[in-house]
Write a structure and sequence with these properties.
Helices cover 17% and strands 24% of the residues. The protein is an alpha+beta fold and 71 residues long. The chain has one domain.
């Protein structure tokens, strides 16, 4: 579940997918305790934070096609 009180995103090193075309891309930053997710086209916008464990479960599910609804 996302945190209600995310940290200051300025202190993170953001990563964006290599295939990002400069448009609406997800950006991700990691720290020892959490993963922070934001919108690359709105760097000053809101962010969501997740525990490292929750992020690992999400990425594993995505890699296994759990979210591929009829694609």
């Amino acid at each position: 579940m996302p945190s209600a009180d995310p940290p200051d995103p300025i202190n993170f090193v953001w990563r964006v997918a290599q295939r990002c075309d400069g448009g609406s891309c997800l950006r991700v930053a990691a720290s020892k305790e959490m993963v922070v997710v934001g919108d690359s086209k709105n760097p000053d916008g809101p962010v969501l934070t997740y525990t490292q464990a929750a992020w690992r479960m999400f990425t594993a599910a995505a890699k296994n096609g759990v979210f591929d609804y009829g694609l």
